[in-house]
Design brief:
13-stranded antiparallel beta sheet; Lipovitellin-phosvitin complex, beta-sheet shell regions; signal; about 280 residues; mainly beta
Length: about 280
């Protein structure tokens, strides 16, 4: 009996020793650079005609740790120039578009946020005082890059195949279109494996949404628009265990929404948006 108890205790201790505790461990004045790409495909039906829009974008950024006090961090995201390729078809030749756009104003855009060591965001603000246009300000807010970087951790040790769930409610304000869009989501994370690469211990985490809904209203050119929809998202996050920051992120999402327009002209516009995005930390 004593031998069996010793074996059980030994196995339990071994399992506990192999657990991974994920949290952010950041040092003041440290910085990390990333490259981001996204491909967005949008299809909508307007007056029995289909309109298709495709957008490819590339953007670099630098994450700067301003302060680290009592496991709370003050962080900044500084962006490089945003480059986009746009293609649009539908409603005849007047709607055809195939062009590239460079938005240097994004290099003057800064997002600031406070978060805990488990990734709970306490505050978020942006600095767009340097004559940045409302279009860029709205685009950067809608991209919500900060949320792509930050994963909320469970605050407990994890074994491979362990899961945790995070529910959030986010509001995106669009100053250009005068309105708010509210997104409610529940994300399930699973620790699928551990890997050592060139001396870096990496946690591999899969994610998928078990619920994703959006709703809101905007106003533009005298028309009121009410939006509602639902979607799915899934992806893989490779996390540097030393500091909790991502090494690489791959995500894909699909949102099916409906936009009801009232005012000078009333109509219901169904819309599907598929997005594939990647984030890579620079060496």
């Amino acid at each position: 009996m004593l031998f069996i108890l010793l074996v059980i205790v030994g196995l339990t201790s071994s399992a506990s020793a192999q657990q991974t505790y994920l949290e952010y461990r950041l040092k003041p004045s440290s910085s990390y650079s990333y490259d981001m790409t996204s491909n967005v495909s949008q299809t909508m039906s307007v007056m029995s005609q289909e309109i298709e829009n495709d957008m490819q974008s590339t953007l670099g950024c630098r994450l700067l740790v301003r302060e680290a006090v009592l496991k709370q961090y003050e962080l900044e995201l500084h962006y490089d120039t945003l480059r986009m390729g746009l293609r649009a078809t539908g409603l005849g030749e007047a709607m055809r578009l195939d062009t590239s756009i460079v938005m240097p104003g994004t290099s003057q855009y800064i997002q600031r946020f406070m978060m805990t060591s488990l990734g709970n965001v306490l505050s978020l603000s942006s600095d767009s005082t340097s004559r940045i246009s409302t279009m860029i300000d709205g685009a950067m807010n809608n991209m919500t890059m900060m949320k792509n970087f930050i994963t909320q951790f469970p605050g407990r040790g994890l074994n491979v195949k362990d899961t945790w769930t995070v529910s959030t409610v986010d509001t995106v304000h669009n100053a250009q279109l005068s309105g708010d869009i509210v997104t409610r989501s529940t994300v399930v994370y699973t620790l699928t494996g551990m890997k050592d690469t060139l001396g870096t211990s990496m946690a591999i985490v899969d994610m998928h949404t078990s619920a994703y809904e959006l709703s809101g209203s905007i106003r533009n050119l005298g028309m009121d628009m009410v939006i509602e929809g639902e979607g799915t998202a899934r992806g893989t996050i490779r996390i540097d265990v030393r500091n909790g920051l991502p090494i690489a992120i791959n995500q894909h999402s699909t949102v099916n929404s409906r936009m009801a327009m009232t005012g000078q002209q009333s109509m219901l516009i169904p819309m599907t948006i598929a997005t594939t995005s990647t984030i890579r930390r620079r060496q």
